[in-house]
């Protein structure tokens, strides 16, 4: 088993700080829009902003088309198990559940759906979590 490169993950460069500032700015702007128009904010969040920004950073770092393609494909498969949360969470909140309990329950459900997605896709030759 290969050693995980924690040193690379935990070291920050000046470019990382620029990426952090720009990415945080985008998120703050979208959350500010929510104060005025929750539907427009929902639309903007529904766009894969995080993935689009990440792919732009990957391109800027010259990580190559193959890595960006793998990222995009993996994102597609990992978005699917998150979709039920966007129906279950509002149902639970409207049914009177406490926000934090609802959030915790939905996180656990999503983890279960992630695991189920990985298991099902392996049967079709798609390995999202290589061993």
Structure summary:
The chain starts with 5 loop residues before the first helix and ends in an 8-residue tail after the last helix. It has 131 residues and is mostly helical. The chain contains 7 helices and no strands.
Task: State the main characteristics.
mainly alpha, 76% helix, globular, 7 helices, 131 residues
Can you put this structure into words, describing what you see?
The protein is 76% helix and 0% strand. It contains 7 helices and no strands. The chain is globular and about 45 Å long. This is DUF3147 family protein. Keywords: Membrane, Transmembrane, Transmembrane helix.
| Terminus-to-terminus distance | 9 Å
- Shape summary: globular
Range of strand content: under 5%
Mean pLDDT over the residues: 89
Weakly predicted, low-confidence segments: none
The count of β-strands is 0
Rg from alpha-carbon coordinates:
18 Å
Structural class: mainly alpha
* Helical residues, percent: over 70%
Q: List the total number of helices.
A: 7
- Which series of helices and strands comes N to C? HHHHHHH
Biggest β-sheet, characterized?
none
Protein name: DUF3147 family protein
Organism: Luteolibacter ambystomatis
Keywords: Membrane, Transmembrane, Transmembrane helix
């Amino acid at each position: 088993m290969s050693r995980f490169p924690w040193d690379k993950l935990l070291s920050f460069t000046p470019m990382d700080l620029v990426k952090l500032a720009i990415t945080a700015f985008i998120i703050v702007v979208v959350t500010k829009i929510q104060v005025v128009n929750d539907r427009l904010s929902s639309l903007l969040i529904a766009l894969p902003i995080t993935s689009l920004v990440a792919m732009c950073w990957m391109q800027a770092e010259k990580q190559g088309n193959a890595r960006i393609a793998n990222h995009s494909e993996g994102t597609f498969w990992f978005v699917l198990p998150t979709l039920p949360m966007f129906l279950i969470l509002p149902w639970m909140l409207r049914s009177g559940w406490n926000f934090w309990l609802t959030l915790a329950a939905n996180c656990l459900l999503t983890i279960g759906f992630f695991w189920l997605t990985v298991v099902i896709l392996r049967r079709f030759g798609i390995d999202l979590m290589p061993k």
